[in-house]
Automatic annotation (TrEMBL):
Listed GO CC annotations: extracellular space
Keyword annotations: Disulfide bond, Glycoprotein, Growth factor, Secreted, Signal
Stated family: Belongs to the TGF-beta family.
Gene source species: Papilio machaon
Main location: secreted
Protein name: Inhibin beta B chain
Length: 360
């Protein structure tokens, strides 16, 4: 047998050993002295560490803005994206950014206007490339105006400012939105403008939002805690979960099967920075396995490696092979969370849900 195959198998086994222990269960993989509660705690701790690692965090973020004070569309998951299949360049370990939610603050404008207006200041995230951005939406909560019996027209412009070369940039319209909303949320598409800003490496921006048909002296935009405006950047990385078929564990099931394991972020004390979901079903594998000869007949990438190694060793060492019930396929977890910069991010974390189990 090619020694490189043996080395690869041993390295792969070492990398998967902890994962197999906590997400799979059999005599070979788990210390028989662990209680069910201890093993469950170990699995949940493993899930916690995987989430932090895939988000490239060493510890949970320190969040200054309470999650329960977020605008209703964000808190209720209305901004969550669901898009195309996983792109081929996707890194199968770290999470991929699917959306960023930015909360502008009310700021001063360098110029005034003839219509009631308001200025929104914000900073674009540094970790999003212009070619990744597919949709950008400005959400604002429109308050009532005496002229709401007619459609209202909002003009969104890039506010006048001084750029990095100390050149004065005039106010430039980038979107016009006509709405029949009397009171409620209004969305305005700004993708092309934001992509231009990202290409120009300019992160600090101010939006001038004017209502050309309103009667009030100030643009009817709410800054109430639950109604404050926000900007959503959607990227091309939007995945749909694919679920495989597997044997689910039951009261009388003894063979290798998938057992429920629900991870509650509230019970972990993480509900102050993870917005959605409230928790998720991670699952794990348990049960008995057939002899190694049956495993060596299975058809999968890892089983092919086991088969080559199994038939290369002497007969007395073959008895040492005892198959373990372990995960064979995983799916992703979609997470909406608040980071230390008080920016809401949506990421898809790969390999977080056990979809099927098998003997390895």
């Amino acid at each position: 047998m090619d020694p490189r195959v043996i080395v690869f198998f041993l390295v792969t086994a070492n990398m998967l050993s902890w994962e197999l222990m906590v997400m799979g269960a059999c005599a070979n993989c788990v210390n028989g002295e662990l209680t069910v509660k201890e093993l469950t705690n170990a699995r949940i701790e493993y899930v916690k560490q995987q989430i932090l690692k895939k988000l490239r965090l060493s510890r949970r973020p320190a969040v200054a803005v309470p999650v329960n004070s977020l605008p209703m569309p964000v808190a209720e998951g209305q901004t969550l994206s669901a898009g195309a299949d996983k792109p081929p360049e996707f890194d199968d370990y770290y999470g991929r950014t699917e959306q960023k939610i930015i909360f502008p603050v009310e700021g001063e404008c360098l110029t005034t206007g003839r219509y009631p207006f308001i200025c929104l200041q914000f900073e674009l995230p540094p970790d999003v490339e212009p070619e990744e951005v597919t949709v950008v939406e400005l959400w604002f909560y429109k308050e009532r105006d005496p002229l709401d019996e007619y459609n209202q027209t909002f003009v969104i412009s890039e506010a006048a400012h001084w750029d990095s070369q100390q050149q004065f940039k005039k106010t430039k319209p980038i979107a016009i939105k006509e709405t029949d909303v009397g009171e409620g949320w209004v969305r305005v598409e700004l993708a092309w403008a934001v992509r231009v800003w990202l290409e120009g490496m300019e992160r600090l921006h101010t939006l001038h939002v004017a209502c050309r048909t309103c009667q009030l002296r100030r643009a009817p935009l709410s800054f109430h805690e639950k109604h404050r405006p926000f900007l959503v950047l959607y990227t091309k990385y939007a995945g749909k979960r694919r679920r495989g078929r597997t044997l689910e564990c039951g009261a009388t099931t003894s063979e290798c099967c998938r057992e429920p394991l629900y991870v509650s972020f509230r019970e972990l004390g993480w509900d102050d920075w993870i917005i959605r979901p409230a928790g998720y079903h991670a699952y794990f594998c348990k049960g008995s396995c057939a002899p190694i000869s049956a495993v060596s007949q299975a058809d999968s990438y890892h089983h092919n490696i086991i088969r080559k190694y199994f038939y290369s060793v002497s007969n007395d060492r073959k008895a040492e092979f005892k198959p373990c019930c372990a995960p064979t396929t995983f799916s992703s977890l979609q997470l909406l969370y608040m980071d230390s910069n008080n920016t809401v991010t949506q990421k898809t974390l790969p390999n977080m849900v056990v979809e099927s189990c098998g003997c390895m």
